[in-house]
Amino acid sequence: MAFKPNYNxxxxxxxxxxxxxxxxxxxxxxxxxxxxxxxxxxxxxxxAPTGEPA
Length: 54
Known about the structure:
Mean pLDDT: 85
Radius of gyration: 23 Å
Order of helices and strands: H
Low-confidence stretches: none
Shape: elongated
Strand content: under 5%
């Protein structure tokens, strides 16, 4: 016979998984921001339009 569903436990598990995913994404964004701050060469090169023909 199957177990009776425990909705509170299932919801808590979903909430833990969601929070872990948010924390991982935030940690990645903070690491990327720190890398940009410490390494000025990591910035993408953008050509500004000057209006002059190349």
